[in-house]
Amino acid sequence: MSRFFGSKGTFLATVAALALSAGVAQAHPTVANQPWGSTPDGKPVRIVTLKNGLGTTARIITYGGIIQSVETPDREGHVQDVVLGFDNLKGYTVDSAKGGLFFGAIIGRYANRLAGGSFPVDGKIYHTDVTAPPNALHGGKKGFDKNVWTIEKTGTNDNGAYVTLKLVSPDGDQGFPGKLTTHVTYTLGTDNALSLHYVATTDAPTVLNLTNHSYWNLNGEGSGSIEPEILQINADGFTPTDATSIPTGQIAPVAGTPLDFSKPTVIGDRLRSNDQQMMYARGYDMNWVVNGPSGQAPRLAGKVYDPRSGRSMEILTNQPGLQVYTSNSLDGGYAGVSGHAYRQGDAIAFEAEHYPDSPNHPSFPTTELKPGQTFDYTTIFKFSNK
Predict the structure, then answer these.
(1) CB–CB of 338/386 below 8 Å?
(2) What percent of the chain has pLDDT over 90?
(3) Is the torsion defined by CA of 60, 349, 148, 94 positive or negative?
(4) Active-site residues: which are they?
(5) Which pLDDT belongs to residue 368?
(6) SS3 call for 237
(7) CA distances (Å), 109 to each of 48, 142, 274, 316, 327, in order?
(8) Average pLDDT of the residues in 157-186
(9) Which pathway is it part of (predicted)?
């Protein structure tokens, strides 16, 4: 046999080369966009479809920069949508908006909570609307999730298919100072990763915290609970909160608590813990302090695996924190693309971001952005069925 195939090493190298070339030959990323209705006030919305040529498709709508769907194969090659969402614009602009659930959206100007809706910038106190009494949640009454973004560019390259969306937030928008210009580039790569690259600049000192609020279920949208999924989080600490989800200012160890996912752990094992932090949140809804330096190359923040489908997803980011949320507020009042009602625990959100209420905690990584500085962060969701 060795005389036919050459040495074992040569044979394996040849097989690997053939497999690689076959994969490259099949990987033809594409991008397309088309109309997707209009908002209640008449603004046209478009949907952008990214395909990486390897069986994975991501769709983004210009309303809220929302990830409307991500379709990717399971271990048998069966393709399913793995994010919760709706098949029409009304599901986002009217129905789910009433519950403030932020399906798939870009969150800004300030993701997560601000105590009392107040925050300092250069010694002056500013205010945004209280939307989760007694605090502000996710950037005011009309945050980035409720704006129509502009398609700045689309295209394909050797790395995949991409779209860049742009939003200009005027000075005073929702109470935040400074004219802020934000670009978010979504790239669906030939490595089966969906990357979100955030870049923002301001013309006056302000605070900024951006994230994406997709609800993930690796067994498929509408398939029920994510409790059997296995989660690992690369964090030794978290930021404890009071009963209103405002951080105390401490960073506490996860060891010995239901928040310890330093080893792969079934999500449902401790979801009903009587730990006080879990009781406040009615499940998981906390900010983990991701190990390793922030602001540099994205590092692994977490990984989730679904034993039913064989799908896994890695979350990589250069943000300092990862808010993990087990969709505790889904109450059966919304039915998604599948036609199935969404209930508590039917998805998990991974909101890579700065810590909640950072402007009011000087010891936390700063969220200040000044003229001449650039907010530049990346979060990557990488899929596998191996």
Answers:
(1) no
(2) 90
(3) positive
(4) 213, 351
(5) 98
(6) strand
(7) 23, 10, 33, 22, 22
(8) 97
(9) Carbohydrate metabolism; hexose metabolism
